[in-house]
Amino acid sequence: MAEIVFAAGVPHAPGLIGLLDAAPGAIQDVVHTMYAELRRELLAARPDVLIVFANDHLANSRPRAYPDFLVGMAPQHRGPFEWYQEWLGCRNYRIQGNPVVAEALLRGLNRRGHRMHAERENLRFDDNISIPSLHLQLDETDITLVPVLQNCTVPPLPDTRQCYALGQSLRVLIEHDLPAGIRVALLGSGGLSHEPGGAPYWYIDKDFDLWFLELMASGDHARMLEQLTVARMEQSGSGGTMELLSWVVVAGAIGPRYGTQSDYALHGNFKCGIGSVLWDLTRKVDAPRPVREPAPIAAAPTLPTLFDPTLASHDLVQDLKWDAALRARFATHEAELLDRYPLRPAERAAIEQRDFRALYDMGFHPYLGGQLARLIYGNTAGKGATIAVLKLVESLSGSQLESFVAEDRVIARP
Hints:
Elements: E1 3-10, H1 15-18, H2 25-45, E2 49-55, E3 69-72, E4 76-79, H3 82-88, E5 93-96, H4 99-111, E6 117-119, H5 127-135, E7 144-150, H6 160-176, E8 183-189, H7 206-218, H8 221-227, H9 230-235, H10 245-254, E9 259-261, E10 277-279, H11 303-306, H12 312-322, H13 324-332, H14 334-338, H15 345-352, H16 356-361, H17 366-377, H18 383-397
Parallel strand pairs: 1-8, 2-7, 2-8, 3-6
Antiparallel strand pairs: 1-10, 3-7, 4-5, 9-10
Helix pairs in contact: 4-6, 6-10, 12-13, 12-17, 17-18
């Protein structure tokens, strides 16, 4: 019988490496302390394998054929994928995989009614696996890695109850399907509140973040399943805040447990709230801790109704990310490259005119909007990517932005 010996939820904001040195000292201290404590506890737990549930930011599949859960079965996991490395501003890494455990996950979770997909080749990793792996220095340990990338942004997506049920099945699988004696660590990598690709690109919902961290540390899973809805997460950052569903999978696997919250950091240039929870697996919850009341939900989610997976521009962006030679051709012969895709006339005109608002109105996925902006305006951590965000937000909001000052405050919605 295998056992779970470590469980935590962590953020993976891309700026946590490439932009960290430029952040105020107090912000840097929160990030370094948070990950140092998690690494210390992870090593003390002596796991044989770390299963990381993280988010696939449209890095491995096309929107029209998108798996909800993708298991990485490679014998070695390498990252980050080359296009994301410049954006993240981080070094390369190699971490040993665990095909035996990966195959057990694929087989066992499918058998228990969860539709899982898998890839034996190395997956394309961005901040999802790269940020926690590098901060935890996993490539300097003997811990093997099984990444599970989940859909948190392409409608329809698995909701809180489905992710929790998957976690419950994962616990049964670990206890009954894995070889006896294996020590398993679980990590949920995602969040906190943010809206990548949208007009509120810099918006951070501090109130939601603090509520969520309290909720996940409270041991109150009944309340979590009732209140952590897709609508609530979408309101705090469409297409980004739902990354927190990776934490829900881990919560389902360990059952109600008390957690220890890290300090919370809010830094505009990270474009995401920062905080973690480490769960205590030594005792079960007798009485949940109190949690503040969340803000009311003001509107229904919009992404599911606007998104059109058939747009050829989605294929264009995916191909450009995955092929460096194609990117070079796009930079010098854009019209010729656009001719290769069955773009609708209005779709093509919007790309040529850099009219992201028009693309979004046609159903273009906002997450790919942010990536298209970086493909056009620059992808480097800091200046290049920041210019791309400014240009994107200008198009979406219809007003020119002179500059953006990355202060440690709650960024208001536009």
